[in-house]
Amino acid sequence: MTVGELYLESLSTGIITPTELSWLTHGQDRFSRLEEATALRLGRLLDQGDIQLGCRLATSAEHGSETPADGFLEEWIEPLGRRRHQ
């Protein structure tokens, strides 16, 4: 992973994970000027609330054909909803 990749991923999803943030802070001494500027921009986006600290759900490519929403429907929503009274 590079600082640029992390920046683009965080910007596109609106999320930066604690692991990514830890990697970013521990690698500061090895960054080029451009990477330092990008890391500062990420920090500002966090401060402004444009990027949130959190986690990303795995994509359907990582789980085969099942999407994360399929699992949520079966495990959480349906037991509370229409299938409960059948």
Task: Tell me what the structure shows.
The chain has 86 residues and is mostly helical. It has two domains: 1-55, no CATH class; 58-86, no CATH class. 57% of the residues lie in helices and 5% in strands. It contains four helices and two strands. The protein has helices at 3-13, 18-26, 33-48, 68-80, and strands at 15-16, 52-53. It has a two-stranded parallel sheet with strand order 1-2. Helix 1 (3-13) runs parallel beside helix 3 (33-48). The longest helix is centred in the middle third of the chain and has 16 residues, at 33-48.
Regarding quaternary structure, how should these chains be classified?
single chain
Cα-atom radius of gyration: 18 Å
Largest sheet: 2 strands, parallel
Beta-strand content: under 5%
